[in-house]
Amino acid sequence: MTDAPRLWSSLSADEHEFQYNPQKAFPHFKDYQAARAEPNRKAREELVAHRDIAYGDHPLRKLDVYPAAGVTGAAPVHVFFHGGYWRAQDKENFAFIAGVLVPRGVTTVIVNYELCPASTLDGVVDSALAAVEWTHRSVADFGGDPDAVTLSGHSAGAHLGAEVIATDWRARGIDPAFVRGAVLISGIYDPAPAIGTSVNAELNLDAAIAARHDVERRAPVIDCPVSIIAGGIEPWHWIDQSFRYAHHLHRHGRDPETHVVPGYNHFDIIGQYLDPESPVMRAVLGQTLAGRRPAQ
User: Fold this and answer.
1) pLDDT digits (tens, 9 = 90+) for 185-223
2) What domains, with CATH codes, occur in the chain?
3) 157-189: per-residue pLDDT in tens?
4) Which region is the signal sequence (predicted)?
C-alpha cells in the first residue's frame, strides 16, 4: 500500500474535507443522535449498570459495565468504542447498545477513552488498549467471561478496534485468543488523510503519529472473525478505507467479511445496533453468542 497517499493527494481542499470529514458530508449529523435518545435513556434508566469504573488515572479512562441478564455461568462480553474522530463523544450516549445486548445474555462494556487535543493519538490508542486489558482481567468480577470478548467500534472507534487486532497481547502477558471477534463500522484505518482536514486543528496529527497508528500497514496479531461494514452513501474515499483494510487483513491470511450497506450514511448506520436483524447486529450477535460457554 505504498502508493496510498495518491488516493487523496490530487483532491482539492474542499473535496478532501468532504471525503475525510464526515460532519461536512452529513451536516445534519446531530439529528441521528437525537433519534437514539429515547432508547438510550431507557437503557440507562432500566438496566443494571456499574458506571464510571476507572481503568487508569486519566479522567476519561472510565467505562460502564452492563451485566448480562438471565445467564447461568459466565456471560460472553462485548466491548464498544464510540466514534468522534478521536476528539469527541461520550459513552453515556451509547447505552442503547447495552439495551439490545444485555437481554440477549451479553455483558456489555461501553468505553470512554482519552480524547484529542488534551491527549495525542498515542494517548487515545493507549487508553483504548488499556480498557480492553482491564476488561480481560476484571470482567469476571461482573459475571463476564474474560476469554470470550468481542468488540465493535464506529468511525474512530473502528480504528481503535483495529489497534486491538494489531497489538502484541502476549507482550502484556495475555493470550490473544481472548478476543473472539470484531465488528468495525465506517472506520478510518490510516490517520494520514485526517491531517489535511479542519479536524486536525484538534487532533494535532503529524506524519510520525499517523504512521505509528496506521493499521493498514501493521500486521494483525489477533486471528479472529472480523466484519467490516460501511454505509453505501458515505463518500467513496471513506468507504474505500474499509476495502483497503479488508485487503490488508486478507494479505495476512485473514478472511474478513466486508459489507457496504445501501442507503446508510456515516451517522445513521449506528442505528443498526437497535435492529437485531441488521447487518451490524447480525455480525455482533453472531460473533458474540458463538463465544458463549455452556453453564458448568
Assistant:
1) 999 999 999 999 999 999 999 999 999 999 999 999 999
2) 6-290 (3.40.50.1820)
3) 999 999 999 999 999 999 999 999 999 999 999
4) none
- Per the CB < 8 A criterion, the answer to whether 77 and 150 are in contact is yes
Phi, then psi, of 199 in degrees rounded to 5? -65, -25
Cα–Cα nearest to 36, from 89, 102, 77: 89
